Amino acid sequence: MINREENRKQHRISIVIVDDHPMFRDGLQQAFGLESDLDVIGYAENGEDALRIVRQLEPEILILDINLPLINGMQVARQLKADRLNTSIIMLTAYHDEEQVLHAMRSSAAAYCSKDITPDELIQVIRDVAGGQHVVNGERMDDRQLEEWIQSSVAAMSGPYIVDADEHFIPLSHREMEILQFVTDGLSNKEIAVKLNISQQTVKNHMTSILKKLHVEDRTQAAVNAIRRGWVRLNNNTTSNN
To answer: Quick check: 18 and 91 in contact, CB under 8 A?
Structure first.
């Protein structure tokens, strides 16, 4: 009979690590390198490189930080979902709340983990995900259980008066993320319109959608919310002309 260790030696799980902190990324690579069944085949420091490398290498597992330069992890996950690649995504984040978890799992993540997870715990999550399971808040689920968890979470968070729960929980679109980044950098609607070559009214329409999706009342709250979740970053090199 072939034991579990022999099975692991027969099948090596290919992994790409995406994180812009070299020490964290290198630490994971070293930890994974000690395991006979794990094979780190690439890494990236930002969302754009992540998309390029994953599309090129098609790893079995993608370790993906949410807070990334250029394109955040949520956007990366959604674009890879559209590509229909056979890559399972394990999202790592320093920010944790139930709505963020729900966004991640609906963006096609197979697992959602805090960045303070131990290497041994993350290695087990990798093996579980490679085996077809999903991991949410430390709980292992199959496809049916995950779908039930998503449905119950949407119902619990949206309440009985939300007409379109799907719309209510869709993360921001790529254009909305662009606009929110400019808002965080301090640009006015007029300046954003010039940057993106769109009308001020279009910017206002996007801002209305952003405020609704983030359940906030103004631009400042939206920016703070997005920074805290790791969806946008402060850019000290960009200043408003106001």
So the answer is: no
Confidence of residue 169 (pLDDT cuts 50, 70, 90): low
Report how far apart, in Å, the C-alpha atoms of 113 and of each of 170, 204, 212, 232 are.
Answer: 20, 35, 27, 19
Written as six digits, the tokens of 1 are 């009979």
Instruction: List, as one string, the DSSP characters of 132-168.
Output: T-EEETTEEE-HHHHHHHHHHHHHHHH-TT-S-HHHH
Of 71, 69, 113, 70, the C-alpha closest to 88 is 113
| Amino acid at site 174 | H
pLDDT of residue 159: 55
Please determine, for residue 142, whether its predicted confidence score (pLDDT) is greater than 60: yes
Pairing of strands 139-141, 134-136: antiparallel
Q: What's the whole-model pTM score?
A: 0.74
